Amino acid sequence: MAAVRTILEGFSRLLFALCALVIAIMALSVTYEVVSRYLLGRPTIWVTEISSYLLVAVTFLGAAWTLRIDGHIRMDLLRETGGWLGQRVSDLAMFAVAAIVSAALLWSGWHMTLANYNFGWRASSALGTPLWMPQSLIPLGSLALLIQSLIGVWDTLTGARDKRE
Amino acid sequence: MLLGFVFLGLLLLLILLGVPVAFSLAGTTLLGLFAMGGWGAVAAMSNTAWSTTSEFVLTAIPLFILMSEVIGATGIGRDLFIAVERVLGRISGGQAVATVVACAIFGAVSGTAVGVAAVIGGVAIPEMLSRGYPRHIATGSVAGGSPLGMIIPPSLPLIIYGVVTETPIANLFLAGIVPGLIITVLCCICVSFMVRRANVRSEPVQAGSVVDSIKLSLPVVLLIILVIGSIYLGIATPTEAAAVGAVGAFLIAGIQRRLTWNRVIALLYSSARTSAMLLFVLVGAMLFGYLLGITRMPQELTALVVDLDVSRWVIFTLIMLAYFVLGMFLEVTSIILITLPVIFPTVLALHFDPVWFAIVLMVNMSLAVVTPPVGLCLYVVKSCAPETSLREVIRGTAPLMAMYIIVLIALCFIPGLAIY
Amino acid sequence: QQTLRLGHYFATEDFRGLTAQHFADQVNERADDLNVEVYPNESLVKGREALQATSQGVVDIYSVYAGYLSGQVPLINVFSLPFPPPAYDDKAMYKLALDPKTVALMDKTFAKFGVKYLGVINSSGPAQLFLRNPVESVTDISGRKLRGAGGLSDVALRKLGASVVLLSAAEQFLALQTGTVDGISTTWSSYVNYGLADVAPTYLAATVVRAPYLLLMNKAKFDALNDAQRKAITEAVEDTVNWSRKNFAAEQDELHQKVVDQAKNVVEVSAEQNAELRKQMQPIYESYVEDNGEAGAQLMQRWHEVTGTDQ
Ligand code: NA
Ligand code: NA
């Protein structure tokens, strides 16, 4: 059981580390574009497009671990005033809604990605990136978020979450 | 339209339950879409999530956050505060005044209010508390000064306003300068008055030489020149300037030997967390905007307001009140993205200047970042002083917010403050 | 009563916004049981997501600039081949677009994606070049940084030696003012409406691209309509095309006059230069046929016919 949890949470953690790395890459590549265009007079054809895909990565790869460390902004009124029960209800609502939302994003994101793959759709740009590649970040990140939400539901119901705090 | 209000009610309920804002927005949308169109309608979830996030202009969000993290984690922000404190520390309420001024200066580098609150709050609040300032003043002067980050250029919300309404961003940035400075002065007077009333007996600050202050603030000044300069010299677009600023902050911190491997990893993680949180709120807001759009509530509400047989200033006041209410529940970027396609045509139809309106909107949105339940700066400031209650933070912030409202009203009577 | 959501990219009062509204009004008038609601300003779906959103049914109908689809449906690039001959005016473009053979090919292509091709209801007019500094001819754009319009026209600008920079519409004014870019390829209406004459006073009248706006509909939604409803939609499209063509010409004349008045330097392109441009574009035209097989060859054939060019 503990091993399964380690693996599952390791998945979220790995995606989160990638998310941090992606932000650094984004800063460097946009700066490279500026330097290349201004000093060398040669704008790149890839920075603007790739950076917009990196933004999808930042959003979806970082979301799951952010949920794990309680980083998604929420109102703590019920948690602070509702006592033990209020805290349970509030946490359960958080993880349950997160689970439903991520399941919907996983399902619809998967269908979107698959359709783009089957239709062979590419970006209308010089790179002509097959759109399913960056789009697949959405079901990937949503999967991690779904797993993390279900772990949260379990921990809240079993009381493991109280012990951790 | 009625259905729109039902969804708003559901959203409010989820937020009050303590469901994170992003998931409350997305969850309400999911339920609404399903109720209105079954499984087929749920396809809009991924389509909207994709089109919201694959947008180059929004890369400025993680990049401005990264720059703030570098400045905060490496002590560059602390140096700026100490420099200002040494100059202003001797006057009445000196440190609170220095805090507001530091917010304004750092506002010229940062594009967001949250960035300013995090960097200045992390330094100024512990400093003021250690010198005997009451908690509400220590936290309130940071929370109240932080919106200067989005009024004084560069400004992420103004970039987004420009993109959505196709208003030249250069004009928007120029228009923010004077109102930003007026707010700074008014807030300084306000905090100085608050300190005097609270009868603070703070230890006097050691006065330093002006040369020392200049040396200490040099990194931040260099960054201001780098960010603003690269925009106005045609080197970078406002979006790209965020990246230039982030890399510039790394270089400065590296040259000053303030970067360790651990520190870099910690600040990247911290940027990742904040970015993922903000971007997910944005996705949720866009989803909710789609849902409200198909209920036609915003359209019909706008039509209702425009058709009212009243003066355009009455309508303007209604719009401002609506923004204030929205500002309580939503994050600034998402408010702009959701409302402008609907509100902006009205603004033009009533012959309001789009640049002027942008600045008025920014001043109004300054309230949004500090009003509960969703006031990002409130939470950031509170996390800098964990033992302070939210009520104390709000008590300290409210008088400064009055200054913003004064400037908002002044802008209505003297539009020349923003458009020159 | 069934509601159909029509999305587009423009302001309500823009000519293309008015055209979309005209179409909606026509449908609503002809079919009591249909109600077309218009969502302007990308308020429901972004322009570049038009095809995907229409295919998924996130929006029912969308009026989309053909350039946005160049990566998804390369076949439609025939409408927006870069630096077309002067003979490719709006009349020629509509002739190509409304040709029954073209319609049949488009219908078949879009049906694969679950999308019904309703037709072409607007033209972009010519997208031409506007620069910060004076130039004498098209050859002078070599070495300059230009904001591109996307699709094949970017490839063409690079072929002429220019560097293509990607910018959002809101950043273009500042970018021209400060010199982040040296010029821009855009339509007359954008030049006038965004006041670009202040920052890009040189007008180089070379047509980089002229593209149609396609009216697309979710196929499942269309197929579910009864015969009377379908007829109402088809008739509304016909009426809208006529309305748009009739009124667009006057609008364009007025805009062109404004462009010429506002620009400081107006640089016309001679017939020889145009011929030379065509020669340089030949490889792009050929690659279009290669990429699109039999259908591409047929459409290219029609393009040559309407423009009166030999192959
Ligand atoms: Na700023
Ligand atoms: Na708020």
From TrEMBL, chain A:
<keyword id="KW-0812">Transmembrane</keyword>
<feature type="transmembrane region" description="Helical">
    <location>
        <begin position="92"/>
        <end position="112"/>
    </location>
</feature>
<keyword id="KW-1003">Cell membrane</keyword>
<feature type="transmembrane region" description="Helical">
    <location>
        <begin position="12"/>
        <end position="32"/>
    </location>
</feature>
<protein>
    <recommendedName>
        <fullName>TRAP transporter small permease protein</fullName>
    </recommendedName>
</protein>
<comment type="function">
    <text>Part of the tripartite ATP-independent periplasmic (TRAP) transport system.</text>
</comment>
<feature type="transmembrane region" description="Helical">
    <location>
        <begin position="52"/>
        <end position="71"/>
    </location>
</feature>
<feature type="domain" description="Tripartite ATP-independent periplasmic transporters DctQ component">
    <location>
        <begin position="26"/>
        <end position="157"/>
    </location>
</feature>
<keyword id="KW-1133">Transmembrane helix</keyword>
<keyword id="KW-0813">Transport</keyword>
<keyword id="KW-0997">Cell inner membrane</keyword>
<dbReference type="Pfam" id="PF04290">
    <property type="entry name" value="DctQ"/>
</dbReference>
<comment type="similarity">
    <text>Belongs to the TRAP transporter small permease family.</text>
</comment>
<keyword id="KW-0472">Membrane</keyword>
<dbReference type="InterPro" id="IPR007387">
    <property type="entry name" value="TRAP_DctQ"/>
</dbReference>
<feature type="transmembrane region" description="Helical">
    <location>
        <begin position="132"/>
        <end position="154"/>
    </location>
</feature>
<dbReference type="InterPro" id="IPR055348">
    <property type="entry name" value="DctQ"/>
</dbReference>
<comment type="subunit">
    <text>The complex comprises the extracytoplasmic solute receptor protein and the two transmembrane proteins.</text>
</comment>
UniProtKB/TrEMBL annotation, chain B:
<feature type="transmembrane region" description="Helical">
    <location>
        <begin position="137"/>
        <end position="160"/>
    </location>
</feature>
<dbReference type="Pfam" id="PF06808">
    <property type="entry name" value="DctM"/>
</dbReference>
<keyword id="KW-1133">Transmembrane helix</keyword>
<feature type="transmembrane region" description="Helical">
    <location>
        <begin position="272"/>
        <end position="293"/>
    </location>
</feature>
<feature type="transmembrane region" description="Helical">
    <location>
        <begin position="241"/>
        <end position="260"/>
    </location>
</feature>
<feature type="transmembrane region" description="Helical">
    <location>
        <begin position="28"/>
        <end position="44"/>
    </location>
</feature>
<comment type="subunit">
    <text>The complex comprises the extracytoplasmic solute receptor protein and the two transmembrane proteins.</text>
</comment>
<keyword id="KW-0472">Membrane</keyword>
<dbReference type="InterPro" id="IPR004681">
    <property type="entry name" value="TRAP_DctM"/>
</dbReference>
<keyword id="KW-1003">Cell membrane</keyword>
<keyword id="KW-0997">Cell inner membrane</keyword>
<keyword id="KW-0813">Transport</keyword>
<keyword id="KW-0812">Transmembrane</keyword>
<dbReference type="InterPro" id="IPR010656">
    <property type="entry name" value="DctM"/>
</dbReference>
<feature type="transmembrane region" description="Helical">
    <location>
        <begin position="216"/>
        <end position="235"/>
    </location>
</feature>
<feature type="transmembrane region" description="Helical">
    <location>
        <begin position="401"/>
        <end position="419"/>
    </location>
</feature>
<feature type="transmembrane region" description="Helical">
    <location>
        <begin position="56"/>
        <end position="76"/>
    </location>
</feature>
<feature type="domain" description="TRAP C4-dicarboxylate transport system permease DctM subunit">
    <location>
        <begin position="8"/>
        <end position="416"/>
    </location>
</feature>
<protein>
    <recommendedName>
        <fullName>TRAP transporter large permease protein</fullName>
    </recommendedName>
</protein>
<feature type="transmembrane region" description="Helical">
    <location>
        <begin position="313"/>
        <end position="343"/>
    </location>
</feature>
<feature type="transmembrane region" description="Helical">
    <location>
        <begin position="96"/>
        <end position="125"/>
    </location>
</feature>
<feature type="transmembrane region" description="Helical">
    <location>
        <begin position="172"/>
        <end position="195"/>
    </location>
</feature>
